[in-house]
Structures are given as structure tokens and as C-alpha cells.
Amino acid sequence: MIPILGLVAGVAVGLVLQPEVPIALQPYLPIAIVAALDAVVGALRALGERRFDDRVFVVSFVSNVLIAAFIVFLGDQLGVGSQLSTGVLVVLGIRIFANAAAIRRRVFHA
Amino acid sequence: MPEDDDVRLATSADESPEAGTADSSADGPEDDAREDTGDASPRPVGRRRARQLLTAVLLGLLAFTVTVQLGQDEADSYQNLRSVELVELLKTLDATNGRLSDQIEDLTATRDDLRSSTNASETAQKEAQRRLDDLSILAGTVGATGPGVRLTLSDPGDTVGASLLLDTVQELRDAGAEAIVINGFARVVAQTWFADDPATGDVLVSGKQVEGPYVIEAIGDPATMAPAIDFRGGIADRVESRGGTLSVERVDSITITALADVVSPEYARNVS
């Protein structure tokens, strides 16, 4: 219940404040969002399988975001930022689809 | 076949350190146990509450970021473009810029042309209006006012004829008279003619009958025109020698309202 409240509060704050994304953060934000989404979908799957753990979720969420941002940062420094971003996105996308497939199988048995 | 795919993917996903799933499967039993006995000891409940709050904060952060990012994408669509596309875009903008600059120059030149021609035509119009005013007074098509002299020529013996009247007018013109009227109704201009009327002994001025005493009003410099009439052996003496009297009066402001008949030239045409 509390997490859903947090979700709603986050959307509301974002809509009300409408802040500008700082220039320095602009390349990392989309990747960080996808990484966080991966963590969230994984958590949803675990929730469905009744083995969800707050601690694991928090750690994986934070580490996913930090690692994704770091990889993009590294890519920018090496001059292959866009390629590395694509790579990270592909990997995260595969994981999200895999987790989504697991959830789907569990819910629909298909 | 999709079944197989799903299975394989799921297996690989399970093998990888999944977010919140694979790890938790390791210590899953512990958690379950803790959950079951959670009500008994207060400390784990507090920790669970804290973790739930942390989860909520993280989810809120994610939602906030997604919202901000979605709003951001509308603001500028250039940040996702590659450098090649940006260079292309920049070239296009440069070309457009150059074209528009040329257009601005053209239009500015046109505007300056129009402005100067407007000025020129305004000046020409003013000049033409000034000439029109001048010529209207000389042609006697408008009234006139200004300083001048008033000559009163009384002629009891009817001895003053057209020729003397004409000489008087000529003398006034010599002295710079700009508008002349006789008896207040006969405007004297370039076309005006003088003749004796044999039947009545009066004078005809362009066909208008003028009787004595003649009052000749002339607009011009009074200090020049008065002596031109008065001088010894001049008009005044001639009038007196014929038994008439001529008085010259300098007037500060004479207003002439009589107009000359305007005759359009029948044969003469403009040269230009």
C-alpha cells in the first residue's frame, strides 16, 4: 500500500513542479529510468511468486541505476556513449521482457 | 515454439542476479519465516515498515523522474539526435539563415527606396502647392490680403480715362504691386484690359463698368508704391493737371476678395 502511495506522490510532484532536467544529468536519466523499470518489473515478478524482499529490491534498484548511469558515463568518456547506451538498453530490455513473460505465465498460465 | 522461448528466457532470467527475484529466492525461506513470526517481535516489524517506506520512496523517485523526463522530451527534441543529424540540421539552418538575410537586405532596400521616393514626392507636392498659391494670387483666382496702398482718384470733370487708369496700374506694377483691385470689384490681372465706354464716359475694366471716383487698392510694399505715384511729374501730377485729385493712403492691411474671370487657354498648350 505504502509503495503505491509513493508512486502516486512521485507522479503528482513531477506534474506539479515540472522541473527542468539539469544538463549534466540529461544523458543518464533515460538509461537510469529503464534500469529502475527493470528492478520494478523484477520486483513485481517476485511479488507474484511470493518471494519479494524489500531489501533485495532496494539494493537492486539503487545498484541498477548507478551501474547503468556509470556505464553511460564511461561510454561518453570513451567516445562510444550512444553505442554503449544502446547495449545497456538491449540488455535491460531483454531482462524486462523475460520477467514480464514470467509474470504473464504465472497470471494467465500461457 | 513460443512456449520454448519463454521457458529458455525465464531460465536465463532466473540464472542471472534478477532484481528482487533471484536473490530473494536464496533467503526467501528466512523472509517467510520472519513474516510469519513478525507479529511476535516488534523490532522486525519496524524494520519492515522502514523498508517499505524506502521502497515507496524509490518508486516515488522513479515515478517523479519518468514524469519529468516525459515533460522534458516535449521541450527539446534535439538531445536524442546524433551528431551527423545535428550537423545536417545546422547546415539547413545556415542555408535558411542566409536566404532570409538576403531577403531582409532586399526588403530593406525596397523600403528605403519607397521611403525616399515618398519623401521626394512629398517635397514636390509642397513645392507645387507653393507655386499654385503664388500663381493663384497673380492670376487673381483667389483672394489676397496684406499691406499696401489705397489710391482715391476723384475726377469731377470725367476727364480721367482708360489710358490714365492703365498708366496708374502700370506704375503700381512697376513698384511691385502683387494684387490690384479697382473700386473693390474689378480685379486687375495680366489679362485685364482697359477701355473707354463712349456711351457713358465711364471706363470698362475687362468689360466691367467702373465709375469715378476710382479707388485703386494694391497689395505690395507701401514704401515703394506710394512714392511711385506721388513723385513730381508722375501720375498724381497728371491727374491734377486734368482737374482731378489723387490721394495716396498707406494701409497696413488690405483684403481683396474680388476674383478675376478665369479663361482657359483655347490655343496655347503646355510645351512640356
Characterise this structure.
The complex is a heterodimer of chains A (110) and B (272). Chain A has 110 residues and is mainly alpha-helical. Chain A has one domain (22-108). Chain A contains 4 helices and no strands. Chain A has helices spanning 2-17, 29-48, 54-78, 81-108. The radius of gyration of chain A is 16 Å and the shape is globular. The two termini of chain A are 28 Å apart. The mean pLDDT of chain A is 87. By secondary structure, chain B is of the alpha+beta class. Chain B has 3 domains: 17-65; 80-139; 144-256, Alpha-Beta Plaits. Chain B has helices at residues 2-15, 22-26, 28-36, 42-75, 83-139, 162-174, 222-230, 235-241, and strands at 144-154, 179-182, 186-188, 194-196, 203-205, 208-210, 214-219, 245-256. In chain B, the strands form 2 sheets. A 5-stranded antiparallel β-sheet of chain B has the order 3-2-7-1-8. In chain B, strands 4-5-6 form a 3-stranded antiparallel β-sheet, covered by helices on one side. In chain B, a hairpin with a 2-residue loop joins strand 5 (203-205) and strand 6. The two termini of chain B are 102 Å apart. Residues 1-41 of chain B have low confidence and may be disordered. Chains A and B meet through helix 1, helix 2, helix 3 and helix 4 of A and helix 1, helix 2, helix 3 and helix 4 of B.
List keywords for this structure.
heterodimer, A: mainly alpha, globular, B: 272 residues, alpha+beta, Alpha-Beta Plaits, three-stranded antiparallel β-sheet, 8 helices, 8 strands, 17% strand, rod-shaped, disordered N terminus
Short description:
The complex is a heterodimer of chains A (110) and B (272). By secondary structure, chain A is mainly α. Helices cover 81% and strands 0% of the residues of chain A.
